Amino acid sequence: MANDQIIKVEKVGFSYGKTEILKDINFSLNKGEIVALLGLNGAGKTTIFKMLTGQHFPLDGKIKVYGLHPAKSRKKLLEKVGILPEISPLDLEFTVEEHLEYAGKIYGYAGVERKNRNNYLLQRFEIMDVFYQKAGNLSKGYRQRLALALALYNDPPLVILDEPGSGLDPRQLESFHNYLKLISNKKTIILSTHIIADVKKLANRVIVLASGRKTFEGSYPGDNALRAYLLGENPESSKEKIKNDSADLSMKEKFSSNLQKNQSVEQKNKIKENNTGENN
Questions:
Q1: pLDDT band at 249 (very low <50, low <70, confident <90, very high)
Q2: Which of 104, 133, 178, 269 supports an S-S bond with 114, CB 3.0-4.6 Å?
Q3: Where does 27-131 have alpha helices with state H?
């Protein structure tokens, strides 16, 4: 494994029963990168995240995280990986304080060190004012910020974020972007999102999935090209289709206009004939 390579995904496939979810997926992540994994609902993003965190075995190919098999070395890897899953990890009966205290104990923080870490995260994610409230009574935005604080509690070198911007208002989103940029030089981050601002402001690289296949990997390709890749289409073909559709629409509009003109002329002639007949 290359010294800077954190994640390696090779020819990975996965199915639920007879339903193929992923096929022949290849990519890698190096230290210090922020990579956006994009796809429409059902494209396979969450399945990849579950394999990266050891919740699923790939049925084909192999996945290595820090050179280890995630499902076989899950406990060891979780010490190095911060995870924000698709489904909230919060206990709705726990207060914000109890969540942070529990996380601190799990990760081996004690005494003043745990208190300082809790205070830092409370301020960083702006959740100090709901410190004593139960998670079940929090708004979606507060819950998301608490979940992000827990994902980053032990300052992990690898961070996996599934829809991290969900529930955040524009100001909170901007603050979170700034925080990720601040920590990105010493972390590797892979995130999935439907918020294009996340991608444009954060990602060094974009990986696009469509129907379980990788359709693009590289720098942000532009809005129109991304739309095509998300649909599993070739952007050039899509451009040609739009061009042809536009030309077809133009012809239809021209035909409709000519038809209206002809109908107008016919109506005028008919009125003229009727007037002539009445005069006679």
A1: very low
A2: 104
A3: 45-52, 74-78, 96-106, 111-124
The amino acid occupying position 212 is G
Output the CA–CA distances (angstroms, integers) from residue 177 to 34, 45, 46, 62, in the order listed.
11, 21, 21, 32
Do 27 and 34 contact (CB within 8 A), yes or no? no
pLDDT digits (tens, 9 = 90+) for 149-185: 999 999 999 999 999 988 888 888 888 888 888 888 8
Q: Are 193 and 165 in contact (CB under 8 A)?
A: yes
pTM given for the model? 0.80
Say what the pLDDT of residue 268 is.
55
Residue type, position 207, single letter: I
Rounded CA separation 250/273 (Å): 34
Q: What are phi and psi of 167, to 5 degrees?
A: 90, -5
Residue type, position 29, single letter: L
Residue 135 CB partners (closer than 8 Å, separation 6+):
90, 91, 92, 93, 94, 95, 96, 99, 143, 146
Q: Which phi and psi (to 5°) does residue 80 adopt?
A: -105, -5
CA 67 to chain centre: 25
